[in-house]
Amino acid sequence: MGGWRNAVQEAAASKPLFLTIYTTIIVGIVATSFYVFSAIYSPSASTSTQSISTSWLSSPPLSQNGGSNFSNNISQPTDKASQPGSNQLKTIWEAPPSNSKMPPLESFKLTKELVGERAKDNVIIVTFGNFAFMDFILTWVRHLTDLDVSNLLVGAMDTKLLEALYWKGVPVFDMGSHMSTIDVGWGSPTFHKMGREKVLLINAILPFGYELLMCDTDMVWLKDPLPYLAQYPDADILTSSDQVVPTVVDDRLADWKQVGAAYNIGIFHWRPTEPAIKLAKEWKDMLLADDKIWDQNGFNELARKQTGPAVDDDSGLFYAFDGTLKLGILPESIFCSGHTYFVQAMYEQLRLEPYALHTTFQYGGTEGKRHRLREAMVFYDPPEYYDAPGGFLSFKPSIPKSLLLDGEHNLESHFSLINYQMKQIRSALVIASLLNRTLVMPPLWCRLDRLWFSHPGVLEGSMTRQPFLCPLDHVFEVNVMLKDLPEEEFGPAINIREYSFLNNPLLPQQVKESWLDVQLCQEGTEDCHASSNTSRPGLLRFPKNSTEEMTREEKFRNRMKRYVGIWCCVESHTPGHIYYDMYWDEKPGWKPAPPQTPEEDHPPF
User: Fold this and answer.
1) I need a surface site. Which of 213, 321, 368, 396 has the fewest CB within 10 A?
2) What percent of the chain is helix, strand and coil (3-state, nearest 5)?
3) Would you tell me the crossing angle of helices 189-205 and 295-303 to the nearest 10 degrees?
4) Would you give the DSSP letter of residue 447?
């Protein structure tokens, strides 16, 4: 394999920027698939086409200053209010002079004056996080500033993030919580601690007298939400939800009587009213008294103490909590969850413009959230993301109409469709590995939805179309694919990009415009040899059997087996999940079925 790999890598280093590979691969006995591979070899992507400079993700050296406890890092409200207009806001992204010194940590305290400096029309928009989520935070800020919204603040949970944001010109305050700078993981004790910080933050800002639009860092704004929120001046709180069945078909507030899903606290707007402040305090007291309560569950428990009646006939607001709090639920179609946006495309079907996208309902951890936003082309990566060493490789899968559209949508037809695509992707990963290129994943078609609980294929009442373009994490373990696996056990890393990568406007134009066609051919046929020499200008041919040899290579197989996850969940069976198998075609009679015994309940490795 070593000699062949060297020969192909030599071919990959030829000058054309794009590489297109035409190949015919036998599927089963009589079926064939024809698909196109393309690859990019870009020596140095120009930054002139980028809307973000190369310094966007860079920072000066960090100081060793520590933080203080958040509870001690909030100044009490003063009588002196600060209500500057938008023309007085300091420009975001305007970095301090490089020869200046970092101000003392004390100057980043959360105060009424600090909030007032950034507020506009008495509204402040806030998110917070640690250094591990810095790229999410920069994306969050960038979307708002692109919408000409600048009345925002970012809470830094560690000094590393605080200093990095300061040097980029992002308004930041110190939460002093001494958080770890690494990804904390959903559901972990540190994750729950972050939730408590949110509650403390809300309780700190509301007494300042400003309206607060509180956001998680794993969401982005696609449209200025402030005019929409201002339409409901009587609301004490407006919250998003996990509702996946539409309750309205226009841009009105959700029908609160039909919302059975949890209120989601990743996007919610608070006004500094007495009922809202009372709820915030009870919420804080509840969480501090019991560290096992998840912050969102606590909010839902309190808010749902009373549900109804309606405040009036028209607004969509209703009384909640203690009967005095006026609550509204943001419409699920345009304040989108990961399901209503990526799976149902509800806003698109209803011909509405989405305001927000929150990466819930996904299965790949932080890496999965990032990949989802990249699929939607709403994540801001640095220029080097679009200029990978060795270049890129992409392909257009060929899917028979019968697999995609014919027959019932059931387990068998879903897995037949996925397995067909999976085998093509496996071959693409082989070629990407041989050429040392980054694979642009193809769009993935699914017949059935994936959830955490049993369901009949799609959720009843939802707008999920069948088949639908499903996120990569519905089938593939995105977090594993992007992880540094030990090379001695899993072979060389194979980098990937999202299916929409080549359509992203941030991709340099010269990378899009130069192509080299490559054919995978049968060894022994004319001009079919492992060489960097082209048989004619713009065409390279090399043996197909090399991909078959690579597929059998043990380390590569170890890697591939871990790249796929589960489908979930079968009704009336425990456990209800079914493992995908990258090498399903090597197992005669393979059928999709959940584990029948505890001993069978493991991935296919």
Assistant:
1) 396
2) 35, 20, 50
3) 50
4) S
Domains of the chain: 108-350 (3.90.550), 388-520+543-600 (no CATH)
Tell me the per-residue pLDDT of 256-295, one tens digit each, with 9 for 90 and over.
999 999 999 999 999 999 999 999 999 999 999 998 899 9
Q: Are 116 and 82 in contact (CB under 8 A)?
A: yes
Alpha helices in 55-213 (DSSP H): 112-118, 134-146, 159-168, 189-205
SS3 label, residue 519: strand
At residue 21, does pLDDT exceed 70?
Answer: no
Instruction: Read off the DSSP letter of residue 476.
Output: B
pTM, whole model, 2 decimals?
A: 0.86
In this predicted structure, the answer to whether residue 541 has a pLDDT above a threshold of 60 is yes
CB 271 within 8 A of CB 237: yes
Main-chain phi, psi angles of 185, to 5 degrees: 85, 130
pLDDT of residue 393: 87
DSSP secondary structure code for residue 383 in this structure: G
CA dihedral 499, 502, 504, 507 (to 10 degrees): 140
Name the CA dihedral angle for 478, 483, 486, 492, rounded to a multiple of 10 degrees.
Answer: 70
Q: Are 362 and 218 in contact (CB under 8 A)?
A: no
Strands, sheet with 211-215, edge to edge from the N-terminal-most edge strand: 172-174, 152-156, 123-129, 211-215, 263-270, 237-241, 325-329, 318-320, 307-310
pLDDT at 396: 83
Query: Residue 467, CB half-sphere, CA atoms under 13 Å: how many?
Result: 25
561-578 as b/e: b if 16+ CB within 10 A = bbbbbbbbbbeeeeebbb
d(C-alpha 137, C-alpha 218), whole Å: 8
